[in-house]
Write a structure and sequence with these properties.
The complex is a heterodimer of chains A (100) and B (252). Chain A is built from three helices and five strands, in the order E-E-E-E-H-H-E-H. With 100 residues, chain A is of the alpha+beta class. Chain A has a single domain, classed as Enolase-like, domain 1. Chain A has a three-stranded antiparallel sheet. A two-stranded antiparallel sheet of chain A has the order 4-5. Chain B has one domain: 2-Layer Sandwich (BirA Bifunctional Protein, domain 2), CATH 3.30.930.10. Chain B is globular, with a radius of gyration of 17 Å. Classes of the chains: A alpha+beta (100), B alpha/beta (252).
Amino acid sequence: MEQIKSIVKSVKVPGGKLLEIELIVDIKERKVKALYITGDFFVYPPEVVDEAEKSVKDTKISYDLVDKVVNIMGKGELYGITLNHVKSLLKEAIEEALRG
Amino acid sequence: MWRLRLIVDDGDPYYQMALDEALLILRYVNITPDTLRLYVFNPSAITIGYFQSLSRAVNLERARELGIPIVRRITGGGSVYHDSNGEITYSIVSTLDRIPRDVAKSYEVITKGIVYAAEYLGVEAKFIPINDVVIAGKKFSGQAQIRRRNTVLQHGTFMYATDLDLLASVLRVPKIKLKAKKVPSIRERVTTISEALGRRVTRDETIDALKYGFSKALNAELYEDQLRPEEIELAKNLMWKYKSREWLELRP
């Protein structure tokens, strides 16, 4: 089995934009190697997304990451996606990561 | 009436994206006046939104084959193919005194310029929130915005004669998005002014139309001018960021 795994979850928000969550994990060490929150949405200011992505780098895979990311992104104004979309895709990705 | 400086130019994609950012920064320190830029990407190029995954937004293999440069923007939104001979990009830099603070409203107010420009050329276009303009349901213009302090930069496209087959071959749109838009492929989702009119519209006509459109939408009087030395200098310094692999692959 590959040790590094990329998990991508995506949604097209009705009347909004595309949101993709890419979670790159080290299955053996149970750690997040990288998180990318991507798509054609808008966030003001954009840096909150960078900050959210960086906040979980090299941390243990767990559902706590969801709140961490959502709290940071919540500091911005989102257009085309909502925090709930981020939350549910991230949950799905973590679920898959925990299954290994 | 709002006196709005007009800059018309062309240049490579790194310069264009660097200059938009330079104008945003220099606007809020009051060196740059409120400005409308109408510009051409020369050579033709692809830009992607700040949050986009490079490999999921662009067909990298195809872009490399065709030698088309790719640049990441500071603004969100989607991937764009800027055809040198078929697309004019505009950018507006202004303080929020002239533009609504409400984001959705500000998109609508500025993007009216695109709707009026199309109307000037004889095409009925419609703004679809958040940031699209369509002709009979097909997109020919997209906008993206960023704000810093009390200043807004909005840039967007106006496809008057873009090679849409080429566009469709270099941009990637995920299946779930096409499905939501109820189109089989990206080619069916886009159009140009020329396609709508059934005749080839020229660059000069398009620039006239955009001048008319934005003056009307913003109740502004345009005066054509040159860039200031500080603007060119900062743009040249910022170009390195846009040329860097690190920036392009911020979200690989």
